[in-house]
Amino acid sequence: MLWLTFVSLATSYNNEKPGKRIIQTKGNPRMTGSGKQNPAENIYDIAIVGAGIIGLSAALALSDAGLRVLALDQQEAMHEASWAAAGMLAANDPHNPPEIHALSLYSESLYPAFLDRIEQLAGRAIPIRTTQTLEGLPADHSLSGQPLTSEEIDQLAPRLNTGSLSFSLMNERSLDPCDLTEILPGAIRAAGIDLRDHTQVLRVESDGPAHRLLAARRAEGQTEEESFTARHVLFATGAWIAPIAHAPAVEPRKGQLVALKIDGPDQTECVLRIPGLYIVPRGDGNYVVGATLENTGFDQSTSEPQLADLARRAAELWPPLANAERVAAWAGLRPMAPDGLPVIGPLSRADGNPTLWVATGHFRNGILLAPGTAHIVCDLILGHTPQVNIAAFRADRLATSAV
Ligand SMILES: Cc1cc2nc3c(=O)[nH]c(=O)nc-3n(C[C@H](O)[C@H](O)[C@H](O)COP(=O)(O)OP(=O)(O)OC[C@H]3O[C@@H](n4cnc5c(N)ncnc54)[C@H](O)[C@@H]3O)c2cc1C
Questions:
Q1: Can you tell me the distance from the alpha carbon of 214 to that of 227, in angstroms, rounded to the nearest whole number?
Q2: Contact present, 398 and 374 (Cβ < 8 Å)
Q3: C-beta of residue 383 within 8 angstroms of C-beta of residue 28
Q4: In the prediction, which pLDDT does 155 show?
Q5: How far is the CA of 334 from the centre of ligand 1 (A)?
Q6: Ligand 1 lining (C-beta closer than 6 Å)
Q7: Structure pTM?
Q8: In whole angstroms, what is the distance from residue 340 CA to residue 96 CA?
Q9: Which domains does the chain possess?
């Protein structure tokens, strides 16, 4: 029954997309005989479990490399951490672990092409909202640039309360993840990727050269079983443990954010960031203030004391926010590995010819790290050497789940 459902779904996929291009194997024997060469096989080259920014950016890179891609999400694509984020591309934040520095710079360098590709596919641009960050650090920390004078600070963010901190200016961009949520899934579908919402992968069975994904699809209050077959599977399940044995044990870390609005012209165009607090301008007098870091499981509620504390500390740092109106508040779950580093690569090293992959644990920097992670995953699957050393991100460095 399950199998029949799969066959009919995959057949309709083929009917809808008759013109998909032929796979470019680039000499990788693993990909020889892919589903794209023979669409009647009804086998995807790769199924991606989880359609947050990590899963979808990998989907796009893999599709652009010629693979036939399926992406599944247990709810709507881009509606978890990737929607909740503040959107800073903070490649040079001195609080980032040094192990992610090279990946951060690599990913940041890929951002213009990533956004151009999305615009080309979706017909809509994702605007860069800010291009500079004023970072404040205690005097005993080394700043990434020259310390600014109080006159310079006043020009960039009038009335900033520097206290005992030294501030420097960084060329760092930010975008609004709500723009990504609105535009990226459409771009993914326009690329010919089969993106399915409300489809939770429950189990992956491996049999011979292909994997069978068993899923539950929710529609109009009903749940239907479905199955899909793919030669490779990438788990990009964010804070959720991937539904397979030996999945890395990542955990959720809740972050609450509050959006404040002040009337009149924008008074700063810089992100203001100090230890434990940031203020991200979104334009039109809107500012996002974040974020808490909480170990409360999968709870995604907001709490008044935490939100009030964020707003109070933001106004203390930058007094123009003192009379701001609170216009929204939300929370999201950052995916965190025990050592705080991403998990990227094959699920297990023991397998010399891997077909099960993972990309998760991007913690506080998943928006920044998405295009870089996507290229690394794509290189690995195609049998190429990634541009960045990923030894620190290996899955087998971590304890695994008992699923
Ligand atoms: C408050 C906050 C502020 C942040 N600010 C920034 C920032 O300024 N800059 C930055 O770079 N990063 C920031 N981040 C971090 C960033 O949001 C995350 O690292 C990133 O979104 C992780 O992306 P993801 O795709 O791995 O996870 P998610 O976006 O959570 O996506 C995972 C997806 O997998 C799906 N899924 C899980 N299990 C299954 C299953 N079995 N079957 C099908 N689907 C499944 C989920 O439904 C989900 O949609 C912030 C995060 C938070 C919470």
A1: 5
A2: no
A3: yes
A4: 96
A5: 6
A6: 49-55, 72-75, 80-82, 84-88, 200-201, 236-240, 243, 255, 257, 290-291, 332, 334-335, 360, 362-368
A7: 0.90
A8: 10
A9: 2-82+180-250+339-397 (3.50.50.60), 132-171+251-336 (3.30.9.10)
